Amino acid sequence: MGQLDGKTAIVTGGNSGIGLASAKRFAAEGAHVFITGRRQEALDTALSEIGSNATGVRGDVSDLSDIDRLYAAVADQGRRVDVLFANAGGGEFSTLEHVTEEHFDITFGTNVRGMLFTVQKALPLLNDGASVILTGSTAAGSGGEAFGVYAASKAAVRSFSRTWANELKHRKIRVNTLVPGPIATPGTAGLAPNPDEAAKLWAFFASQVPLGRMGRPDEAAAAALFLAGDQSSFVTGTELFVDGGLNQI
Ligand code: NDP
Questions:
Q1: Which keywords does UniProt give here (predicted)?
Q2: In the structure, which protein residues have their CB atom closer than 6 angstroms to any atom of ligand 1?
């Protein structure tokens, strides 16, 4: 018997990296999974990897009409939502003197505005007792060079989860933040201009981590599954770090 048998889960940014690994895990545990992302081709590839228990809805979380289309697709299948993993995220990375309005708007538009309205617009479809998982980042507390705007956006996510856990407690909806440290995904590879530089960057990240390596997407997905299902039924308003000890030691 799967941990999410008969449940409906949504994973935004489910066509890559942590989101894709989590969508696969949720589906393997019996959930029907809706995945989103802006790139249709990546969605199609992801759907073929997840299997028949999944639906893809293309969309940009910073566009409210795309969020509406996602929930319309869920409602069209006559489903309500048990697990919402608001994972879509990313951003632009610049030092203070080079930050532009566009950098700021893309990063906050995705990680803050997008996350806020993804959760707000899900409320009518969320079952009482549902699990909402937000994606933060160890960057929120790191002070890493060129991470200022991204880190600030992820610090906002931390605040969201505490406030929303409080506001939604009357419906027994749990809200937690998954906080990845450096995980080997297309997202972290994309921080570098080419594969050689990406390998160097991953080696640098690994050298900073107490456990001495980058994390794998399936390790983040295992934590997401814990937060999604009944194993975490008494856990809300908190953060789960999956970072090889980066933030703790
Ligand atoms: P990936 O780049 O591999 O995946 C990011 C996902 O988000 C993709 O599916 C992408 O799909 C989607 N996405 C990005 N922007 C938007 C948007 N505006 N609208 C809809 N979907 C969007 O990165 P990761 O798996 O590494 O990152 C997943 C989450 O984890 C992010 O929130 C990231 O900030 C966070 N994180 C990752 C860490 C890491 O080391 N990997 C560390 C800390 C936090 P598409 O491009 O098709 O839109």
A1: Oxidoreductase
A2: 12-13, 15-19, 36-39, 42, 60-62, 87-90, 110, 114, 135, 137, 180, 182-183, 185-188
